Structures are given as C-alpha cells and as structure tokens.
Amino acid sequence: MPYSSAPGPVTADASAAPGTPGEPADIRLIVSDMDGTLLDDDKRIPPGLWDTLALLGERGVVFSPASGRQYHTLVRQFAEAADGMAFIAENGAYVMRDGVELHSDPLDPAVAAGIVRTVRRLVADGARVGAVVCGKRAAYVESDDEEFLAQVRRYYAENRVVEDAAAVADEMLKVALYDFGSAEHGVARASLADLARTHQVVVSGEHWIDVMNAGANKGSALRGLQRDLGVTPAQTLVFGDYLNDLEMLDAADWSFAMANAHPAVRARARHLAPANNDNGVLRTIARLLHLPSAADGR
What we know:
The structure is a single chain. By secondary structure, the protein is α/β, with parallel strands linked by helices. The protein has 2 domains: about 30-105 and about 215-295, Rossmann fold, CATH 3.40.50.1000; about 110-215, 2-Layer Sandwich (Hypothetical Protein, Haloacid Dehalogenase-like Hydrolase, Chain: A, domain 2), CATH 3.30.1240.10. About 30% of the residues lie in helices and about 20% in strands. It contains 10 helices and 14 strands. The protein has helices at about 35-40, 50-60, 70-75, 110-125, 145-155, 185-190, 220-230, 245-250, 265-270, 280-290; strands at about 30, 60-65, 85-90, 95, 100-105, 130-135, 140, 160, 170-180, 200-205, 210-215, 235-240, 255-260, 270-275. Strands 8-7-6-9-11-10 form a 6-stranded mixed beta sheet, with helices on both faces. Strand 10 (about 200-205) and strand 11 (about 210-215) form a beta hairpin. It is globular, with a radius of gyration of 19 Å. The protein starts with about 30 loop residues before the first strand and ends in a 9-residue tail after the last helix.
C-alpha cells in the first residue's frame, strides 16, 4: 500500500515498494533512531547516507540522530556530515548542535548514586548486570568485566573505568543498566520498580535499561528542538523501532515505525517503513522528498 499524501494511519505492507505523494513533502526536520532503525543489525551505516545528508543540507533540512548513545559517540559516527546536524543523545537527556548545548536534563547525583548502589547489590547476589553512569564529559563504569566493557565501548566512545562511579565530578544525564539477560523482563528492571514511580525507566534495547528524569525522553527533546528551529510537527519526519522511541513518534505528523519494530511502536506510529536491514530510513526519505534514486541506498 502506498504512503498517503498527508499524515494519517497507514497499514502498509512494509515489504512493498512504497509510493510517493504527488509533490515532495514539506519536511524540514528528520529525526532517526540509530540501532534497529538507521543502522542494520550489524550496526553499519546504510549505503547512501552521506549523499542523502548532503542533499538534505542543500534543501535546508536538518537531520538529527536520536539515540541512547552518547553525544561523543554520535559525533564521531557522523563526523563526515556533523556541521548543522542536531544530536539527540542519551535518550533525550542531552541535545547538541554544532558543539553548542541546546538542552540537557541532568539527574540528581543522589539518584545516580542510589542506582549504582542497587547494581552493586545485584552483582554481589550473583546477577549479571552492569551500570554505566552517563555524564556530559564521559561514561563511567566500575566493572572490569571485558564482555560488559565491550558493550559499553560500542555506545560510549568516551568511557572510563573508575573506582566509584557515583563520586565522579560530572553532570550525570542518565544511568544505563546492561542486563545480560532480558532487559524487559530481567532482574535489573525489577530492581528499579520504586524508582519508576518518579523517574523515567525505559527499556532501550534487548539488554539495556535507561534511567533519567521523569520528563527526559526523545519526545521532549524533539519538541524542544522543534521550537529552537521553528519547525512544526507537520514538518517533522521521525523513524523509530523500540520502546524508547514512543514519545518521539508522538511529536511528528510523519511518524514511521520500522517493519522490524516492537509491536508497541508499530501500533503508535502513523506509518510503516521498510526494515532497517532493507535501508528503510533512506528509502523512505528519498520517496517522500523526491530525492534522486542514487540516494535511495539501493
């Protein structure tokens, strides 16, 4: 089923080649999640991305990665095209553009310290869980478990192993917990049940849980960015696949769930895009904005 020419509920077959509106959609801001959305399952940048970003820049369209990843990690990944891009990092707790902070929502240090102590108790009881205390300057961990550190390095380019992650002098944006079992159903999330009454406790991946202030999420970050840029929800195109993307989908009229998305995300989005492994983000952008077929990533 082709895309509709205006935003609205779509029950498209994501495997079908999507159609286009009669004219290029009036889109001024494009926001995409990273893992499971823009990147394929091997965490690779899709073919055609740099050409697409150059074309978007020529049209005055701002592109923004929105991720649980660290700002420093995102800037490195997009080094070829970072000028003018906006970065929604740490699941919305930190928004940067051209090296300038636009918004941040730091955690109370006492809350971060409490989560660290909780994880220490879980580890002492035999649970395979790790904590990453995510500051503006770096991510801090206490564990020297190489399997855990390999996961940390993937998402946090600036990372440090410290003796006491709760005592570091930095502004802490969130605490991320890595559960070697299931993040959605495992012991780490259950241990945060009381904190979830006052803070944002969100499953951001198969093994990751992020803890932030109650108002910190990708959706609130996106709304702030829209105000900064003078862009409306009707001019905003968003892509997501997992539970930490839900609020972000609500902030855009052009909201797309990937074909591989969590069922809750597919239910929340207005439209469906091809899967991440099928270069769904770039294919959808090319069709909606009538970009040259070379930017289609095919």
